[in-house]
Design brief:
2 strands, globular, 6 helices, mainly alpha
Length: about 150
């Protein structure tokens, strides 16, 4: 129960930050991506502060022997760049540029009841289901053992 409460409070805090920063406004995000037109640089500060906070927390976490709520840190050990990673990154970028949403802000925007947010999240869910269905077929033969993509630190 304690872990769920921490996850819920973290999610609420994240959503509030997205709202305050303007990341839930597709026009603001598209304005940020429009570097040759009416560029809106305000999201640079949002990203820079996010990276800064992550960097500090990451340094503090690495100094600890183990996480607060788990036995070990799970650190990804894969470093290869494959077609699936490139394709997923391209689809994410295209969707972000066309729609002005990425998954977190889109879910936060559901609260507003905006029809565009509802359509975006529904499309995102359908896309995730399709990837899951097609991914299972292609990776079933070549999938490593469960958890093999992570190493305990």
């Amino acid at each position: 129960m304690k872990l769920q409460l921490i996850a819920f409070v973290s999610g609420v805090l994240f959503s509030i930050g997205l709202g305050i920063s303007g990341m839930v406004q597709p026009t603001k995000v598209i304005g940020f991506l429009d570097v040759t037109g009416a560029w809106d640089p305000t999201l640079v500060f949002v990203m820079a502060s996010s990276v800064g906070v992550y960097f500090l927390v990451h340094l503090l976490a690495r100094q600890r022997g183990r996480p607060l709520l788990a036995g070990t840190f799970e650190i990804p050990r894969r470093s290869d760049i494959d077609l699936r990673l490139l394709g997923g990154s391209a689809l994410f970028g295209i969707g972000w540029g066309l729609g002005g949403y990425c998954p977190g802000p889109a879910l936060t925007s559901l609260v507003s009841g905006a029809p565009f947010a509802l359509v975006f999240v529904a499309s995102m869910i359908v896309g995730m289901l399709l990837v899951d269905l097609t991914g299972r077929r292609t990776t079933r033969q070549q999938a490593p053992a469960a958890g093999a993509d992570y190493v305990d630190a």
